[in-house]
Inverse folding.
């Protein structure tokens, strides 16, 4: 389902920026599918091997989103939602 949403919303992705895909951990396959889709459409994309917890534990930057009903920006694009 997530990959289908990415495919529907490809035009919203920022052109020319590298996209980093992640999953819940090393055994999750959704990020592999997302990387495959995005790469096939010409996006610069790569996958981190660990999950978000490992990313955060390594001291790397992490942006979290509020629950959907409280968000002021679109989680997918980090832009203001359209009215």
């Amino acid at each position: 389902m997530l990959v289908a949403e990415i495919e529907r919303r490809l035009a919203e992705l920022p052109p020319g920026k590298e996209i980093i895909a992640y999953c819940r951990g090393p055994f999750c396959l959704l990020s592999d599918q997302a990387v495959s889709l995005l790469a096939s459409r010409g996006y610069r994309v790569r996958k981190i091997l660990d999950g978000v917890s490992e990313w955060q534990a390594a001291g790397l930057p992490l942006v979290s989103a509020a629950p959907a009903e409280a968000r002021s920006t679109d989680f997918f694009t980090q832009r203001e939602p359209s009215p």
